[in-house]
Write a structure and sequence with these properties.
about 250 residues, single chain, alpha/beta, Rossmann fold, about 45% helix, globular, 9 strands
């Protein structure tokens, strides 16, 4: 039980990669805060985990709402304790008719919404949890970036790539400011992962993408969750300011 006694907030964890991370962390002994914006989806995930005998807590809030984040995290601290692990996973990558939005067709509102969710949400949650981590001189912050920031992808648009690249820069800044308080801040960059969204992508597009991955397959959610567990554990005590790529060699593909 590598995370026994820890309280972990994973944003956007009612489905997809976040849900996989939440389940693994709970299996490793953490009390996991399942977060999302849909009360029904969060409750369904909480119930599923409770049926597995896991310790979980549901928290419905939009990470882009600064005041709401402050209130909800205060509530979490009061009811179950101080957050010792934060995974900034909540993110969006909007498409139109299954295709990425080209910048020439992108509205300002579309740009701002992605930046708000993917980077400002991470700021709001991080800013709120770090005072307690500093006081205890212990904490783990993991920012979920993306393999697509390292090379152009026909599947991901400029607002998504920009926000995910910003998370890596945010990670570097956090490390420099917080490492001497005993806080580890790292980024995790998944490659294309076999989530519900990817399963809904047309088969021909997925087949084309396979050709760029030397390992010849997409990541399973468990591949990403295991990497997050490493960064959250004491096994990564001396890993700080790093970006861990979990992409099957994508950046070296043709």
């Amino acid at each position: 039980m590598r995370l026994k006694g820890q309280i972990a907030l994973i944003t956007g964890s009612s489905r997809g990669i976040g849900k996989g991370i939440a389940q693994l962390f709970a299996e490793e002994g953490a009390i996991v805060v399942v977060n999302g914006t849909s009360p029904e989806t969060v409750q369904r995930t909480v119930d599923e985990f409770l049926n597995l005998g896991l310790k979980v807590y549901g928290a419905v809030f939009d990470t882009t709402d600064h005041e709401l984040v402050n209130r909800e995290i205060s509530k979490i601290e009061k009811e179950i304790g101080n957050i010792s692990i934060l995974v900034n996973n909540a993110g969006i990558s909007p498409k139109k008719n299954g295709e990425k939005v080209m910048i020439r067709d992108m509205s300002y509102a579309e740009w701002i919404r992605v930046i708000d969710v993917n980077i400002n949400g991470a700021f709001n949650c991080t800013r709120r949890v770090i005072p307690g981590m500093i006081e205890r001189r212990q904490g783990k912050i993991i920012n979920i970036a993306s393999a697509f920031v390292r090379r152009y992808s026909p599947l991901t648009a400029s607002h998504y790539l920009t926000s995910k690249a910003a998370l890596i820069g945010f990670t570097h800044a956090l490390c420099g400011e917080l490492a001497h308080y005993g806080i580890n801040c790292n980024a995790l960059s998944p490659g294309r992962t076999w989530t519900e969204m990817v399963k809904e992508t047309p088969e021909e597009k997925n087949n084309e993408f396979h050709s760029h991955i030397p390992m010849g397959r997409f990541a399973e959610i468990g591949d990403i969750a295991n990497a997050a567990l490493f960064l959250a554990s004491e096994e990564a005590a001396y890993v700080n300011g790093a970006t861990l790529d979990v992409n099957g060699g994508f950046e070296f593909g043709k």
